[in-house]
Specification:
Strands 2-1-3-4-5 form a five-stranded mixed β-sheet, with helices on one face. Strands 8-7-6-10-9 form a five-stranded antiparallel β-sheet. The protein has helices at about 60-75, 95-100, 120-125, 135-145, 235-240, 245-250, 260-284; strands at about 1-10, 15-20, 40-45, 50-55, 80-85, 150-160, 160-170, 180-190, 200-210, 210-220. It folds into three domains: about 1-125, Severin (3-Layer(aba) Sandwich); about 135-220, no CATH class; about 245-280. The protein contains seven helices and ten strands. Residues about 225-230 have low confidence and may be disordered. A hairpin with a 2-residue loop joins strand 9 and strand 10 (about 210-220).
């Protein structure tokens, strides 16, 4: 038995609440592509779990709200429940599929609204956030434990201030092409702030035990960079690096005293062609 709560952003304090979703029979009717911009909390009363689910196109701020509300739901249920991220599984994973077929029924969890908030609650929640620089090996284990988003490819990975990219290395090409993906360090982030504005990135932040493991930058698989169009004139180097002849340049601008009669030449060539064809016909 599972309860579903949708995370909503509101304009007034506390800026985010949940609403109960009770007009469906199974979880799979809600967790689908049509709701990719929404964030949900699933309370599984059989396994004592609170699943957080962030739609692939859901706003980052809404995902943050969902994490806070999941913690509040856990306190409401007397801490007997644990919070898990459903996004760490691919849609084909048996764990994900098991959640999708769970029946949606009323339960003991109650929707969180304005009356459940106080300044103390919000300040206490924010105070639990911790940022460390994890080790690369351990961070990669945690990051790779999450399924890759569908229809997206990872371009950059940021761990502890270092930027990494992925490089495909061929392993076998005789029978069939096989490649392995290796992580390549590209450099370090500069002091201050860094903006990634050159492409439409989708950012994924991996958090384990309130510690940021890494920041991944994804782009759509079908996205192609626009071709570079040079709108300024190009002067090739060989035209300016070699010494030219001024006399040749001046002659190029001179108008000759007499111009060839192009029309008369074309007429004479046409007459010659016709006479040649007539001679061939007579000989045949």
């Amino acid at each position: 038995m599972t309860q579903i709560f949708e995370v909503l952003e509101v304009r007034e304090f506390p800026n985010f609440v949940t609403i109960d979703i009770d007009d469906v029979s199974v979880v799979g009717e809600v967790i689908n592509v049509a709701n990719s911009r929404k964030v949900y909390l699933l309370v599984d009363h059989n396994k004592k779990r609170i699943w957080t689910y962030n739609g692939q196109n859901s706003p980052f701020k809404l995902q943050i709200y969902g994490g806070i509300l999941a913690g509040m739901l856990r306190k409401q249920l007397k801490l007997f429940y644990r919070v898990y991220a459903l996004n760490m599984y691919s849609t084909e994973d048996p764990e994900f599929q098991e959640v999708m077929i769970q029946s949606v029924e009323p339960g003991r969890a109650k929707s969180i609204n304005k009356d459940d908030f106080s300044k103390t609650v919000i300040d206490g929640t924010v105070g639990e956030i911790i940022i460390h620089n994890p080790g690369l090996k351990k961070a990669m284990e945690n990051i790779n434990s999450y399924a890759q988003p569908e229809d997206l490819k990872r371009i950059f990975l940021i761990i502890a201030g270092n930027i990494y990219s992925e490089e495909e290395t061929p392993e076998a090409i005789l029978k069939e092409e096989q490649y392995s993906t290796n992580l390549v360090k590209m450099g370090r982030l500069n002091n201050g702030f860094t903006l990634f504005k050159d492409r439409n990135y989708s950012t994924r932040i991996i958090v384990r035990n309130r510690t940021i493991q890494g920041i991944e930058l994804y782009v759509n698989n079908y996205e192609n960079l626009p071709s570079l169009r040079i709108k300024s004139p190009i002067i090739h180097e060989d035209k300016i690096s070699n010494t030219g002849d001024m006399d040749t340049l001046m002659k190029a601008f001179q108008i000759p005293d007499s111009l060839p009669d192009v029309e008369s030449e074309e007429k004479s060539s046409n007459v010659d062609e016709k006479s040649g064809e007539e001679n061939k016909t007579q000989n045949n």
